[in-house]
Amino acid sequence: MTIEQINGTTLYYEEAGAGEPLVLVHGAWVDHTTWDAVVPRLSESFRVVTYDLRGHGASTLDPPDAGTVHEDVADLVALVERLELGPVNVAGISSGACIALRFASEHPARVRRVLPHEPPCGAYLADDSEHKEPLDDVGEILGDVARQIEAGDVAGAAQRFFDWGVVPWDDLPPATQVLVAAHANAFLGQLRDPDAVDLDADALRALSAPVLLSEGARSLEFARAIVDQFALVVPNAHRFVLPDAGHVPHMTHPDDYVDMVVEFVRST
């Protein structure tokens, strides 16, 4: 357990293993512990760094809904520098995938490979008439979730969000349900951040590092469609479909996720 003062906030991180550096960026509603099922095996091949985004877990932010994706990227840059990691492999899940891609596109010299799983960047489907209705549904659901959080119904908001597009709420252990609900206000901040799930297409087109765009065969159609659009933008993109998984394969199918990561790094 290590806590550092980085960019004016307290940032918590953990390290395991040795080898090429691999930084894991968690998504919304959770903290670094979401990676617990994959760190033991990944640390057999990599120097693995997990950390809590500001406003999550043991990383402080007051108020917790005040963070921005730009601060998240700056924190990641500072953490890589503090640990003297050099160019890193960086993997992210969901909104963590957006952070990983933004980090890579804004700081290409710091990146070896990028492994984003289902970045929820709906703007890439904005002009796609085929997906207009699913995108409208997403906007309505997220609006409902935001209103529930603002009304103080954090457990209800978390359940609505997870039942919709992550994993069934009742399948989560009670401790995980508590963890998720505790991050509702941080998620509200993400919803209010206009750049949270937006990315510069021109910067992505200039990215030379190998990028593994992964998706779950059991994920929502619009999530897979976004990955399709990224594949058209990123020049050195590779695709991988986890056949039995959905939006959080590192939690539901950890061995499959680890196998995918290790094979990609070995082959590129």
Quick description:
The chain is α/β, with parallel strands linked by helices and 268 residues long. Helix content is 43%, strand content 19%.
Give descriptors for this structure.
19% strand, alpha/beta, 268 residues, 8-stranded mixed sheet, single chain, 43% helix, Rossmann fold, globular, 11 helices
Can you describe what's shown?
The protein is an alpha/beta fold and 268 residues long. The chain has one domain (2-122, 195-267): Rossmann fold, CATH 3.40.50.1820. Helices cover 43% and strands 19% of the residues. The chain is built from eleven helices and eight strands. It has an eight-stranded mixed beta sheet with strand order 1-2-4-3-5-6-7-8, sandwiched between helices. It is globular. It starts with a strand and ends with a helix.
